[in-house]
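To close the section, here is one more complete example, presented without commentary so you can practise reading it yourself. The ligand is magnesium ion.
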Amino acid sequence: MPATPNTLIELRGLRKTYRLGDVDVPVLKGISMTIHEGTLMALMGPSGGGKSTLMNILGFLDVPTGGQYLLDGRDVTTLSANARADLRNARIGFVFQNFNLLARTSALKNVLMPLEYARNRKSAKEERAWAESLLERVGLADRMEHQPSQMSGGQQQRVAIARALVNRPKILFADEPTGNLDSKTSEEVLRMFQELNEQEGITIVLVTHSPEVGAFAKEACHIKDGLVVGGAYDERALS
Ligand code: ADP
Ligand code: MG
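Output:
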């Protein structure tokens, strides 16, 4: 019998309401879901449904207005901004649709950047060697000194993935990481996420519209109008 996977994240009735002028705009209306350790989850659903809002809360880039967020069994809903930043640096990697790289800074320096905010710094030499190994890992051994402005979209997203890995995160969140890429490059980037999940055991949640979702994700979760409207737990996630 396969072992029961550990719960990494649990959301209970998570809500987010924006205030525009004097109007309340409910965006997340009570999201309850479980994210198991080691999964590769595709978050799907129509535009405007609240996927990015949810991802930003999961990645501690934003805070909910109601409900609970438990990470490793610990309630992280009401942490201070500093505590959230610490947790984000130590545990979480984030990849964006538009890469969010410094365009005129080398790939290597972009990857090294998050270490500036890390606890337990290593020597400059060790940090550099680690960043180089990550760029090799994403297939950019020969592009380390190139600037993102000199790279293709797929290469830029690989730099962004290496940067997201530099603090050895347990979880990677990626919000439409292939949204600006052609279909062939998208597939390569999705395969990279799959490899990181399978080989490094990193838990990954990514927003995607890719029709190939079933081929690489272990499970899918559908969000519509601020609610979870479907999600099948694939047995492959148990192995
Ligand atoms: P998705 O990523 O699924 O397309 P979003 O989470 O970006 O959806 O947006 C969900 C809804 O929340 C949209 O109607 C959007 O206009 C609204 N929204 C997102 N961010 C804000 C904000 N900062 N202030 C007000 N409304 C917002
Ligand atoms: Mg979005």
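Once you have examined the tokens, check your reading against these statements. DSSP finds seven helices and ten strands in the chain. Residues 51 and 235 are 24 Å apart (CA to CA).
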